[in-house]
Amino acid sequence: MAALNLATVEIKALVPARDFELCKQFYAAAGFTMAFSSEELAYFHYGGCSFLLQNFFVKELAENFVMHLLVENVDHWHEHITAQNLLERFGVKVGMPEDRPWAMRDFTFLDPSGVLWRIAQNIPRAEVP
Q: Domain range spanning residue 69?
């Protein structure tokens, strides 16, 4: 039997949006490029990472939805996100970077719909005494 070619190309999350237009503005302000938009979907990317913003909202889904973005330098990303004044412009929360016991340094922010973003970088695992 010949081996199957199961090469993958991409995986995308479909992120819910309570106010689709506001969320598109938010993600553009956060630094993502909107490459496509229709009445139902908007395609955002930064480098090789992407997601689809959908004009669909269920409160319980949005408030339990988490996006995880792995980056090379989380502190630079935190500086970038805070420099965009997202709190003042969109009323969202942005946390401070912290080292986590699972060998990552990360910070979190909420989008206008309540979707939690965790921006992280890998760090050396702490030695256990």
A: 14-122
Count structural domains, the chain. Answer: 1
**What is the pairing mode between strands 49-54 and 66-70?**
unpaired
Contact 94, 81 (CB under 8 A): yes
Report yes or no: 106 and 121 within 8 Å, Cβ to Cβ: yes
Max Cα-Cα span within the chain: 60
Residue 66 belongs to a domain: yes
Q: Give me the CATH number covering residue 109.
A: 3.10.180.10
**104-110, strands of its sheet edge to edge:** 66-70, 116-122, 104-110, 98-100
- Is 102 part of any domain? yes
CA distance 88 to 90: 6
Q: pTM value?
A: 0.89
8-51 pLDDT per residue, tens: 888 999 999 999 999 999 999 999 999 999 999 999 999 999 99
The DSSP secondary-structure symbol of 94 reads B
